[in-house]
Design goal:
The chain is of the alpha/beta class. It has twelve helices and 18 strands. The strands form five sheets. The chain has a ten-stranded mixed β-sheet. A two-stranded antiparallel sheet has the order 1-2. It starts with a strand and ends with a strand. The protein binds S-adenosyl-L-homocysteine (SAH) and iron/sulfur cluster (SF4).
């Protein structure tokens, strides 16, 4: 959005700065650049993130002149919710429109006293994991920090903002929606740090989790910028199988990935934390007892807990969900081998809000889709893939 500003009698079009996505230091810099003190930035930050305010006029502890000045040069612009779907089990899915005709998904999952928000970091994903609906859409673009923290802003507001007495509140955030968060490093780090900032959402660092399929160089520098919890999407106990499922493994194989993740966890001030290993179980492919034993060997000396995820089928791939028997057997082996091993229950199935079904619609720009268009003699126009 832009606004007209009369500078010395000359009308100048200026782009308004969206304050929603600014990290604390960037917000303070912004206020200092307009001659305002740091505490003003903190007051505005609290209005935005703790009170869900998007109108400077409502900021009653600011002077009228400052409110007017801000309205001319800045804005608080969350992405637009185009649809909200409520599942019978309490799961709520937001379809969120981001610029460029794209839609991303954010899912809120209530569980006892906890409320976990599954947040997207990109429109689509370039990493093309063979079992992932988001990967099948290709990549369009990174979300801005305003679009990432905006998902928390929207969900918190829909449940009565940060009111601890509200029936449902966001207590946990997992960066497990659409996209690979480490490929959108700065915006993801800024947003996660806002989630944990006491003047914004004040979430515990143990309750904000970044999930990665293994972008090792970015993981190597993550600890310099944040101290969130870490989940690694492993899905296979050896490189041959992981190369098939998670193609980025060909570039950064398992040993490198686990080394980097171990260093990250070891560098956290809180030494009780463990790496969460995510393992999506696909029928016959990676769910056999010998896979479980191989996984136990691989992870023997690493501080991990293991989260087993039954594969969520979707129409574009032929993989099948793990059987309940194989799932139990896999879990039992890992437990006997001494690992804390949980199973992610599928939630929000009736609204397609389960993990890996986050598809949205993407104006696909990857070379993969270009190849597809060439092969099928289609036009060069981007294809719009609507969620299954
Ligand atoms: N790109 C990041 C975060 C988003 S994916 C990552 O890969 O970790 C979030 C989780 O959902 C990952 O563990 C991913 O492997 C899993 N997932 C993706 N597709 C799935 C599917 N169809 N069924 C079950 N889990 C899936
Ligand atoms: Fe991307 Fe994660 Fe899906 Fe792989 S599993 S394609 S990294 S979103």
């Amino acid at each position: 959005m832009s606004s007209k500003l009369d500078v010395d009698g000359i009308d100048t079009e200026i782009e308004a700065t969206n304050l929603l996505g600014l990290s604390t230091s960037k917000l303070v810099d912004f206020f200092e650049s307009i001659g305002e003190k740091r505490f003003r930035a903190i007051q505005v930050q609290k209005w935005i993130h703790q009170n869900g305010v998007d109108d400077f006029d409502a900021m009653s502890n600011l002077s009228k002149s400052l409110r007017q000045k801000l309205a001319q040069i800045a804005e608080i612009r969350p992405p637009k919710v185009i649809e909200q779907l409520d599942s019978a089990d309490g799961t709520r899915k937001f379809l969120i429109e981001v610029s460029g005709n794209n839609v991303v998904e954010t899912v809120f999952i209530p569980e006892g006293g906890r409320g976990t928000l599954c947040v997207s970091s990109q429109v689509g994903c370039s990493l093309d994991c063979s079992f992932c609906a988001t990967g099948k859409q290709g990549f369009n673009r990174d979300l801005t920090s305003a679009e990432i923290i905006g998902q928390v802003w929207i969900a918190a507001k829909s449940y009565g903002q940060l009111d601890p007495k509200a029936e449902r509140t966001v207590t946990n955030v997992v960066m497990m929606g659409m996209g690979e968060p480490l490929l959108n490093f700065e915006n993801v780090v800024d947003s996660m740090n806002l989630m944990m900032d006491d003047n914004a959402y004040g979430l515990s660092k143990r309750r904000v989790t970044l999930s990665t399929s293994g972008v090792v160089p970015a993981l190597d520098k993550l600890g310099e910028h944040t101290d969130v919890s870490l989940a690694v999407s492993l899905h296979a106990p050896n490189d041959a199988l992981r190369n098939e499922l998670v193609p980025i493994n060909k570039k950064y194989p398992i040993a490198q990935l686990l080394d980097s993740a171990t260093r990250y966890i070891a560098g956290l001030p809180d030494n009780r934390r463990k790496i969460t290993i995510e393992y999506t179980l696909i029928d016959q492919l990676n769910d056999r007892p010998h896979h479980a034993y191989e996984l136990a060997e691989l992870l023997r000396d690493i501080p991990v807990k293991i989260n087993l995820i039954p594969f969520n089928p979707f129409s574009l791939v032929e993989y099948k969900r793990v059987s309940n028997n194989a799932l139990r057997a896999f879990q039992n082996i890992l437990i006997k081998e001494g690992f804390t091993t949980t199973i992610r229950t599928t939630r929000g199935d009736d609204i397609d809000a389960a993990c890996g079904q986050l598809a949205g619609s993407v104006m696909d720009r990857t070379s993969r889709s270009a190849r597809y268009r060439q092969q099928h003699h289609l036009s060069e126009e981007p294809v719009k893939i609507i969620s299954e």
